[in-house]
Amino acid sequence: MKLVSLLAMFIIAGFMFTGIGKLHLPGDPAGNSNVFSQRSSEKTDTANISTMDDYYLRNGQMETGSNNIVTSVVFDYRGFDTLGEAAVLFLVVTSISMLLFSIIKGKDLEETVLTDSDGFPAGMTRIVSIGTVLMLPIIMAFGAYLVIHGHLSPGGGFQGGAVMATGTALLVISSFVVRNLQKTYKLFSFFESLGLTVFIVTGFAGMGISFLHNFLANNDGSFLGKVIPLGTNPGFLNSGGILPILSTAVGIEVFCGISIILVLLSRALNARGSQKGGHKC
Amino acid sequence: MTFSVVLSILCAVILITAVLSILFRDLMAAVVSYAVFGLVMTVIYFMLDAPDVAIAEASIGAALTVCIFVIAIRMTRRREE
Amino acid sequence: MLSIFLYVTVVSLLILSITSVIYKRNLIKLVIALNIAESSVNLFFITLAYRPDSTAPIFTLAPALQELRMVLPSPQALILTNIVIGFATTALMLVLAVITYKNNGTLDIRKLKGVEDHD
Question: What residue in A sits closest to B53 (Cα-Cα)?
Fold first, then answer.
């Protein structure tokens, strides 16, 4: 039986390796040397465009007011897909909470943390605690910068939320365990739901034309609607239409969702029921 | 030319760390090897002109995944029987 | 020449992860193997999006339009969301592995016989 499965693996590997020759090399869809050669200020004729991505590259800045084309694809052209991804994250966090609250129960919900004389946690040395306190504001500020400037520079809701959640991971591994689990869980859960709700409400606000229609972009320079010069520009924060709003909503949701996962896992690690079952490593 | 050489070396490092993270019997060593895998993958994404993906992979692949793996290993057992 | 390296890496990682999913028995090792498969798919998409001598698809302080070539943006957008979702599903798999260990006392999938009914 083992021999048969090994033979099947070799056959699959052979198929995959011979399939490499059929793949197109990187750069082949760019048949012309410069995709911007015929660009004008009007909308490009769709019949002249070879691929979908060239359409995004030529018209994305004009239609969404965002300098970062990846962000405009994530939150504008494929915004409905992103809504599905945010819903998947919400669902996973819900099911993880349901599973872990079967381990954490009783006294573990309001466990008090052992602290030393200065209020730092007693689990780690003082070097780790003070280093955490020093590093945490920098990490949070960098994550918030990534979220807010998502339409100008590399970044956006998903990356910024993940970077901010790294701060929570730093708190968790340096034994800053939360004192009241119920209150922390309710706070994070509220903001996670708020992020998803803001996303959906912003999507329905442009409902006159379509779901997630970018109704704020490129209107006479009012709130988030500055008309940016096409092509290379230094970047304007007051542009992008609904992209910064959606980016902030997704950033809050990702930060709070991952934080819930980390906090619940660390509390389940320190729960009393788990000490007698498994053996320490 | 330098680009291709550096990229091929990074691909070799990725393959080595992936094989090591499968072969180690000690799960903590396997997870550390997987962290190196994620870090080198970040450099490859950056060299392939994908800075957005590189930021996400740097924070998730090298930091958060290792964190939850270490917590899960401490809740179960460390050696693969 | 460049693409051959990347595509061979992708296929090798995929074969490695499928083989270890079949032959390994530890549940946490299976989660690591599935993560490696996911990383290989991510690398495949980013390789498809790459164009030689191009810049990232961001117009802020980019070179002038006449000599500007950019990589494809939509595969990068797909992979961007996939990485975050991959972390969440990894956490879910790990929690299921931990609960399996608490109920059965083992992580070996050959020794899992299920729990007896307690009704």
Answer: A159
Considering only CB atoms, which chain B residues are within 8 Å of C109? Answer: none
Q: Determine how many CB atoms are found less than 10 A away from the CB of residue B39.
A: 16
Q: Do C15 and A82 touch (CB under 8 A)?
A: no
The answer to whether B59 contacts A165, with C-beta atoms less than 8 Å apart, is: yes
Q: Provide the Cα torsion A256, A258, A263, A268; round to 10°.
A: 140
B63/A contact by beta carbon, under 8 A = yes
- Would you say residue A271 has pLDDT above 70? yes
> Residue A95 sits in which domain range?
49-113+121-272
A276 touches chain B (CB under 8 A): no
**Under an 8 A CB cutoff, do B74 and A155 touch?**
no
Beta strands in C1-119 (DSSP E): none
Q: How many domains does chain A have?
A: 1
For the stretch A70-124, pLDDT in tens is 999 999 999 899 999 999 999 999 999 999 998 887 777 776 666 777 777 776 7
The two structure tokens encoding residue B14: 């990725």
Domain boundaries, chain C: 8-52+69-104
Domain boundaries, chain B: 2-75
Residue C25 forms contact with A (CB below 8 Å): no
Q: Which of A188, A172, A185, A180 minimizes the C-alpha distance to A252? A: A188
Q: What is the pLDDT of residues B25-64, one digit of tens each?
A: 999 999 999 999 999 999 999 999 999 999 999 999 989 9
Interface contact flag, A26 C47, Cβ < 8 Å: yes
Average pLDDT of chain A, as a whole number: 82
Helix residue ranges, H only, C24-111: 27-49, 73-104
In order, the DSSP letters of A186-205 are HHHHHHHHHHHHHHHHHHHH
Which chain A residues have a beta carbon less than 8 Å from that of B56? Answer: 158-159, 162
Tell me the C-alpha to C-alpha distance, in Å, between residue A230 and each of A215, A227, C65, C66, C97. 19, 9, 10, 13, 52
Chains that touch A (3 or more CB pairs under 8 A): B, C
Q: Are B68 and A262 an interchain contact pair (Cβ–Cβ within 8 Å)?
A: yes
Q: Is the pLDDT of residue A175 over 80?
A: no
Contact A16, C14 (CB under 8 A): yes
Using an 8 Å CB-CB cutoff, list chain A residues near C22.
5, 9
B63, B68, B74: residue with CB nearest A281: B74
Angstrom distances, CA of residue A110 to CA of A97, A107, A181, A184, C64: 16, 6, 6, 11, 60
Check residue A25 and report its DSSP letter.
P
Query: What is the count of residue pairs from A and B with beta carbons less than 8 Å apart?
Result: 56
